[in-house]
Specification:
Blueprint (H helix, E strand, L loop, with lengths): L12 E13 L3 E3 L11 E2 L6 E2 L2 H9 L3 E3 L7 E2 L14 E3 L4 H5 L12 E12 L7 H4 L7 H23 L5 H15 L10 H10 L2 H21 L25 H11 L3 H8 L1
Antiparallel strand pairs: 1-2, 1-3, 1-8, 3-4, 5-8, 6-8, 7-8
Helix pairs in contact: 4-5, 4-7, 4-8, 4-9
C-alpha cells in the first residue's frame, strides 16, 4: 500500500446513502409516523433490511469502522434522480409499497390511485481514516511491505465476507447482514492501536518483528475458522454453501454466484481501498 506522511489526503471520499420513508394516509398526507410494522422504518438502508427511528442512529450504523463523516448531520444532501434534470428539491420517489419490485419501478410522479408510499435518498460524504487501523508510524512504513501479501489479505477479507453472505442470504445479499459480518471480520483482525498508550519502543518492536507471510497465514486460519464455524452451525445447515468448505487458498470460482457476489460487494460495499487499509 502506498501511504505517505500526508496519506490522509490520498484517501478518497465516498457517499453514504440511506432512505427516508413515508406512507400516505387520507386526511394526513405522507407521514413518517404512519409506516406499517411490516415496512421499513422512517430511515433505512437502501434495501430496507435495516431501519432506524432517528436519522442520527442510521448514520452511525452505516458509517463503518475506520470512516468519518466530513460534513455535519445537518449538512446532508438529498440525492436527485439521475433520469431528469427538472427535479423538484424534495426528490421523492413514489411506489405502491416497499417491496423490491415496487421500489425498482418507483416513479417520480405520483399516481394517486396506485402510489401509497414514497422515499428519497439522503447522502452524506465520508472519508477513510487509516489511523483507525494502524498507528501512523506503522503504516508510514508500509512501502516496505510485500504487496502480494497485502493483496492476498485484501482478497481474503472480500472472499470471507462474500462467503458469509451466501451462508446467511443465499442468492441475494442484504446490507443488514453484510454490515454485521464485516464488523465481525474487522473485529477478528484486531488491528486497533491505542496511540495514547503505545510507546515508540512498542511500535518499533512491532515494525521489526512483523513477518507479513506469518501474518497472512495467521489471518487465513483465524478467519477461516470463524467462517467454517458459521457454515457448520446447525441453523445454517440448509444454506447455499452448507456443503462447501471455506479454504482461503482454494479456487472458489466454481461456487455458483461467488465471483459475482465478490464483485458486487467490492463495488458497492467493501471497496479495495478499505480492505487495503485493513491489510496494513
Amino acid at each position: 500500500m502506498m501511504l505517505s506522511s500526508d496519506a490522509e489526503t490520498l484517501w478518497p471520499e465516498v457517499r453514504g446513502t440511506i432512505l427516508e420513508n413515508e406512507r400516505f394516509w387520507l386526511g394526513k398526507g405522507f407521514i413518517k409516523n404512519g409506516l406499517l410494522p411490516t415496512e421499513p422504518g422512517r430511515f433505512s438502508t437502501t434495501d430496507g433490511s435495516s431501519s432506524w427511528k432517528k436519522i442520527e442512529e442510521a448514520w452511525i450504523e452505516v458509517l463503518g469502522k475506520g470512516w468519518y463523516y466530513v460534513n455535519r448531520n445537518d449538512e446532508l444532501a438529498v440525492e436527485p434522480p439521475t433520469d431528469r434534470k427538472d427535479h423538484d428539491s424534495s426528490c421523492w420517489f413514489y411506489a405502491r409499497d416497499f417491496t423490491t419490485a415496487a421500489i425498482n419501478s418507483a416513479s417520480r410522479e405520483r399516481n394517486v390511485a396506485k402510489h401509497w408510499v414514497r422515499f428519497r435518498k439522503l447522502t452524506r460524504t465520508k472519508k477513510m481514516d487509516p489511523n483507525a487501523f494502524l498507528h501512523r508510524k506503522v503504516y508510514n512504513k508500509c512501502d516496505h511491505c510485500d504487496s502480494n501479501v497485502k493483496e492476498n489479505i485484501s482478497l481474503l477479507l472480500l472472499q470471507s465476507l462474500a462467503f458469509l453472505t451466501m451462508i446467511y442470504n443465499g442468492s441475494k445479499w442484504s446490507i443488514s447482514t453484510a454490515l454485521l459480518m464485516k464488523a465481525k471480520i474487522i473485529e477478528l483482525l484486531d488491528l486497533q492501536f491505542d496511540e495514547t498508550t503505545s510507546s515508540d519502543l512498542e511500535i518499533e518492536s512491532i515494525e521489526k518483528t512483523s513477518n507479513f507471510f506469518t501474518k497472512l497465514s495467521f489471518l487465513e486460519n483465524k478467519i477461516a475458522t470463524y467462517v467454517e464455524s458459521e457454515r457448520k452451525n446447525i441453523k445454517n445447515m440448509f444454506s447455499k454453501v452448507s456443503t462447501t468448505c471455506f479454504c482461503p487458498r482454494n479456487d472458489k470460482s466454481k461456487i455458483f454466484g461467488f465471483t459475482d457476489r465478490c464483485n458486487d460487494l467490492s463495488h458497492s460495499f467493501f471497496p479495495v481501498v478499505e480492505r487495503e487499509a485493513l491489510a496494513g
